[in-house]
Design brief:
Layout (H helix, E strand, L loop, with lengths): L2 E2 L9 E7 L3 H12 L4 E4 L11 E4 L2 E4 L5 E2 L7 H10 L5 E3 L3 E7 L2 E6 L2 H11 L4 H26 L2 H19 L3 H8 L3 H7 L15 H11 L3 E4 L4 H12 L4 E4 L3 E7 L2 E7 L4 E9 L3 H8 L2 H6 L2 H5 L8 E8 L12 E5 L5 H10 L8 E4 L1 H4 L3 H4 L4 E8 L2 H4 L12 H21 L7 E7 L1 H8 L30 E3 L8 H17 L3 H5 L2
Parallel strand pairs: 1-11, 2-3, 2-14, 3-11, 8-16, 14-20
Antiparallel strand pairs: 4-5, 6-10, 7-10, 8-9, 12-13, 13-14, 15-18, 15-19, 16-17, 17-18
Helix pairs in contact: 1-9, 1-19, 3-4, 4-5, 4-8, 4-19, 6-8
Length: about 525
């Protein structure tokens, strides 16, 4: 059972591994180590575990803060399904979202992304009948990029001398795709800007528009959803609920309200962690799932970070995009409101994705460059058992941290009238986008509240309220320090910064980290 550090539970001083943060990467590496008989302590500063997989409840509703859909899990033999089954002992159930997982809406035109590669191809071809060669070439490149990805991440788990010997050979095929931007690749296939805009419309899933994002990141997301979208039955809190017993099975513990002040380092070896109240826990293996910025800037003493050049390494990467999310509640069931399971991606009619983003960053009253709408209560078949006669909708858009940074020194829920006024303006604009698509929902709203980059900063502890760790530019994939091992013996990294954005990326990061820690090839153990 997940325990609160504030309740002063009975704890031991020494563990086999201590993991800082309880996001998807941390939970995965924790569960894998527990299955190897290791006693694991997971420390989470928030009052709820799970990182971006956690939920919050308010006024008779619950909302999932980070999970909106997962690809690949509907196929029992897919790597991602096998991994979820492995870390949850097969207790995590999934609901298929149906034939159309994403609807791309550009002005008054809409394009459906349907499940199944052949179906997807034929559907896109029906919208762009003159672009058959480009569409086929695009799908082929998506698969080729993903095929090369395995060796790239395998290299990260190898010991130093092996990385030196064969690292370049393993990484080279993937870097061919990672070194190009999404737009560079797509614009070689077609001159049809509308097709490029449609094919790259899921850029919100990793945060960077096509002229900035690495094609390898784009291809990873596109491939992830080719088989359709899925949602955890019972909501995303089921992820930590099903993994917790696996941690406990080896006498491990997940602690909430447990903030780590710093990693204890002696003679360049991590020995344990010091909590903000001064209490110390010890382990031979310390794993940080809090991101490279938090780890190198906050958890490692500055003198050591400086000496090892870790702060210098951080100059080579940038925090990813931040966002606002409008959480809405309705006093009617998803069936009564005729809510779809399909996600909506809504874009302005004029300009490519990068132009729309640039325009908005210069003028926040310009049209939102992207509005993403998710209907979690319609996706979860168990929702109406828990919340009969209720529904929820999430609406997300890009909001730069700089827009809200003037209120950064204020306290959560007490940030002042100007902040509340700004939030109300954004909320009304987002609702207007929703009502354009589903006008019958106007007048049905029972409750709404907006989270901002400051909310993300407060709860998830990312310094600029970013949601995808560090930006997925071509340059990011060239950074050798983004790997599980650090220059400090016994200190490892996990999470989306060492693989790629999102729950799937963090999930596989857990495998890479566990392999690096133990020297075991978990690929052969889990994915057979």
């Amino acid at each position: 059972m997940i325990q609160s550090y504030k309740q002063r539970p009975k704890l031991e001083d020494k563990y086999d591994a201590i993991i800082i943060g309880s996001g998807m990467g941390s939970l995965t590496v924790g569960a894998i180590l527990a299955k190897e008989g290791k006693k694991v302590l997971i420390l989470e500063r928030h009052y709820t575990a799970g990182g971006f997989t956690h939920i919050f409840k308010r006024k008779g509703y619950e909302w999932d803060v980070g999970i909106h859909y997962i690809g690949g899990v509907q196929q029992e033999n897919s790597p991602i399904r096998k991994l979820f089954d492995y870390v949850s002992d097969g207790k995590l159930a999934w609901a298929d979202m149906g034939e159309v997982y994403d609807r791309i809406i550009i002005g008054d035109r809409s394009y459906d992304f349907v499940k199944g590669v052949e179906n997807f191809r034929n559907k896109i071809l029906s919208y762009f009948p003159d672009e058959e060669n480009a569409i086929d070439a695009y799908i082929d490149l998506v698969f080729k990029s993903n095929k090369a990805m395995g060796a790239f991440y395998k290299e990260k788990a190898l010991p130093g001398f092996l990385r030196f010997l064969i690292g370049g050979f393993l990484k080279r095929p993937y870097l061919k795709y990672a070194d190009q931007t999404t737009y560079q690749v797509l614009s070689k296939l077609t001159k049809n800007e509308e097709l490029i805009k449609v094919l790259s419309a899921q850029y919100g899933d990793y945060g960077l528009p096509p002229k900035q994002s690495s094609f390898a990141m784009h291809a990873s997301v596109a491939r992830h959803y080719f088989g359709g979208g899925n949602f955890p039955v019972g909501g995303s809190s089921k992820i930590v609920e099903t993994i917790d017993p696996v941690i406990e099975s080896s006498l491990g513990t997940i602690l909430i309200n447990a903030e780590v002040d710093e990693v204890i380092i002696e003679n360049n070896r991590a020995k344990g962690v010091r909590m903000i109240d001064g209490k110390e826990f010890y382990a031979d293996t310390i794993i940080s799932g809090t991101g490279v910025f938090n780890t190198f800037e906050k958890l490692i003493p500055t003198s050591i970070s400086t000496k090892l050049g870790l702060l210098e390494q951080l100059q080579k990467v940038t925090p990813s995009v931040s966002h606002a999310c409008l959480y809405m509640g309705f006093k009617s069931s998803p069936k009564e409101l005729e809510l779809p399971k399909t996600n909506f991606w809504i874009y302005p009619n004029d300009g490519d994705h990068d132009t729309c983003v640039d325009r908005y960053l210069k003028d926040e009253t310009a049209p939102f460059p992207v509005v993403y709408v998710s209907f979690p209560s319609a996706k979860d078949p168990d929702w109406s058992n828990r919340y009969p006669g209720r529904s929820t909708i999430d609406i997300i858009t890009l909001v730069p941290y700089e827009t809200v940074s003037q209120w950064k020194d204020t306290r959560w829920m007490k940030r002042g009238e100007d902040y509340e006024t700004w939030k109300e303006q954004i909320s009304q604009r987002l609702m207007k986008e929703l009502f354009k698509q589903l006008p019958h929902l106007e007048g049905e709203v029972d409750h709404y509240e907006l989270s901002t980059p400051l909310s993300t900063q407060h709860f998830v502890n990312y310094k600029n309220g970013e949601i995808y760790g560090i930006d997925h530019t071509p340059d990011r994939f060239r950074q050798k320090f983004l790997q599980p091992r650090t220059p400090i013996k016994g200190l490892y990294l996990t999470g989306q910064d060492i693989v790629t954005a999102g729950v799937g990326g963090a999930l596989f990061a857990g495998v890479v980290t566990a392999s690096a820690v133990t020297g075991t090839n978990f690929k052969n153990k889990i994915f057979v």
